[in-house]
Amino acid sequence: MIIKNFFEKDINRNIETVIKADDRDHISTEVAEYVITKEIGNKIRELFSNYKSYSGSNGVWISGFFGSGKSHLLKILSYVLENKEVDGYKCGELFAEKIEDDVLLKGDIVSSTRIPSESILFNIDQQAQITTKDDPAAILKVFYKVFYDHVGYYGFQPHVAEFEMWLDKQGKYGEFKSKFENILGSIWETARMDYFDPRVHKFFFKNF
């Protein structure tokens, strides 16, 4: 008898030793192979029950020792709630199928996946280059940066991002980018990284 034949999955495949928040190359594998322990099952039962029926703002704090799987759980939950299709599978449905002995939990997961959701996963240390750790608003600034980047604004410079958001609200952001490129011959998303360039300043003073 060969030991590897006892395993359902190929034990010679590459297995990531560290789960990275921004790694989206192995989504279906991560969801399919995630093990829902009894303790995790008890915790997510409350989470999904509240998630599908709560009408206001909500927040969940995941606590645990270093290496206990907090980030892994958070990442899996983001996939489940977004329920995106990856490799022919819906992540939420794939996760729900893992629940075999709790009909209510399985139903709550399925119901939760029907709620439109969008996740922003990031490592806060990797995004902290815009501020210093002794800044009392450091965490808030990082959250703003990541959000602005996610929606397509220039989060590295919040005042530029706020200007872009203002244009968007006026329905003129697309027109602005087109006009900018026609006049300066540069794509705005590239030029905004050098917004202090005299040509960019001249464009603003002349057109706004």
Describe what you observe in this structure:
The chain has 10 helices and 2 strands; from the N terminus they run H-H-H-E-E-H-H-H-H-H-H-H. The protein has 2 domains: 111 residues, no CATH class; 80 residues, no CATH class. It starts with 26 loop residues before the first helix and ends with a helix. With 208 residues, the protein is mainly α. Strands 1-2 form a two-stranded antiparallel ribbon. Helix 2 crosses helix 5. It is elongated, with a radius of gyration of 22 Å. This is DUF6079 domain-containing protein. Pfam families: DUF6079_1st. It comes from Chryseobacterium manosquense.
Strand content: under 5%
Number of domains: 2
- Trace the largest sheet across and list its strands: 1-2
Instruction: Note the total helix count.
Output: 10
Give me the Rg, rounded: 22 Å
Give the fraction of residues assigned to helices.
40-55%
Would you count the extended β strands for me?
A: 2
Topology at a glance:
Blueprint: H1 27-33, H2 38-51, H3 70-82, E1 85-86, E2 89-90, H4 91-96, H5 103-113, H6 138-150, H7 158-169, H8 173-184, H9 188-191, H10 198-207
